[in-house]
Amino acid sequence: MNSFGGQFDATQLSRWILTRAHPGWLGLAYRDHGPDWCELELPWRPDLIGDEAQPVLASGPIISLLDMAAGMAIWVANGEFKPVATLDLRVDYLRPSRAHSSVIGRVTCYRRTRSAAFVRGSAHDGDPSDPVAEMTGVFMTLDPARMVAA
Amino acid sequence: MTDYLTAYARSLGIVVAGQEGGMPPLLALEFRHDLEGRPGAWHGGAIAGLLETAGYAALRSALVEAGRAPLLKPINVTVQYLSTGRTRTSFARGRIVRLGRRNANLSVEAWQDDPNRPIASAVMNVLMIDD
Fold first, then answer.
1. Considering the domain boundaries, does residue A14 fall inside one?
2. Is A1 among the domain residues?
3. Between chains, do B6 and A51 touch, taking CB under 8 Å as contact?
4. Does residue A14 or residue A72 have the better pLDDT?
5. Closest-CA distance of chain A to residue B86, Å
6. Is A67's CB within 8 Å of B84's CB?
7. A60 lies in a domain?
8. Has residue A115 been placed in a domain?
9. Is A110 exposed, middle or buried (0-12, 13-18, 19+ CB in 10 A)?
10. Distances in Å between the alpha carbon of A117 and those of A8, A78, B34, B65, B115?
11. Buried-most residue among A35, A96, B33, B68 (CB within 10 A)?
12. Where are the alpha helices (DSSP H) in chain A?
């Protein structure tokens, strides 16, 4: 990816961001966004379950969903497409999602400083008032000029 | 050997790399494009998935030793990202901080080249429901 920089248009860029790498592998889909939030969907898939006995999405993919929605919330809040790195992420698992259910994650970037962005969000499986998980996190914005090549 | 890996963990590509005498299982995950976040770096979610899986493996291993087979339910996880995960294999091992009757508290670290230089760590609380 060489196209960090410039304006961040969630509707346009999500088509590309979400079809590659880890988000692409998970099949994350863009749903909606506002001035400081973004909502994504993690489709149910049998190879992402966390317990053989129950056809319910594992916790890991839900963290990825919330982490990605957080990154995109920061980009829409900044209006700018600058690389970010997760510093700290906490997820509370309130209840398992329903069998064969997709999970929707919405994250808001509620505070930005020069280098940090504070986010909070939740995940649900159909009813936003009955969440499956709550998250809070802190991300750092990176200076592309100082990013070390892998 | 106890199966420490969920469908998600196997699908992600996690393997049990070893379990030396009395130590919790060591898990490994080889880097590939499916695990990438920003170019040249692991996705935070993939690292969290590896950490959680190592936490559960440590807990399951200790429970087997204790002759217990409870249902495990996640309560929460806090992940600290310490440095960029570069495009190579990551390892992780969990440690049981406290094993109670109903709750377990786990501490997990992930690293790449040097176990003394972790790239991420996690604290997990897990609920155990015995039949």
1. yes
2. no
3. yes
4. A72
5. 6
6. no
7. yes
8. yes
9. middle
10. 16, 10, 26, 43, 29
11. A96
12. 10-17, 21-26, 59-78
The band of A2, judged by pLDDT with boundaries at 50, 70 and 90, is very low
Instruction: Domain of residue A94: give its range.
Output: 10-146
* pLDDT grade for A67, boundaries at 50, 70 and 90: very high
CATH T-level topology, domain B7-129? Thiol Ester Dehydrase; Chain A (3.10.129)
Amino acid residing at B125: N
CA gap A91, A68 in Å, rounded: 14
CB contact under 8 A, A60 and B12: yes
| Predicted complex ipTM exceeds 0.90 | yes
**Residue A75 reports pLDDT greater than 90:** yes
State the Cα–Cα distance between residues A48 and A127, nearest whole angstrom: 21
Q: Which contacts (CB < 8 Å, 24+ apart) does range A12-20 have?
A: A13/A75, A13/A81, A14/A72, A17/A72, A18/A68, A20/B33, A20/B36
CB A50 within 8 A of CB A61: no
Q: Which residues contact A129 (CB under 8 A, 6 or more apart)?
A: none
Tell me the CATH number at A29: 3.10.129.10
- Count of structural domains, chain A: 1
Contacts of residue A14, defined as CB under 8 A and 6 or more positions apart, other chains included, come to: A30, A72
- Whether residue B9 lies within 8 A of chain A, CB to CB, comes out as yes
Q: Residue holding tokens 């960029």?
A: B84
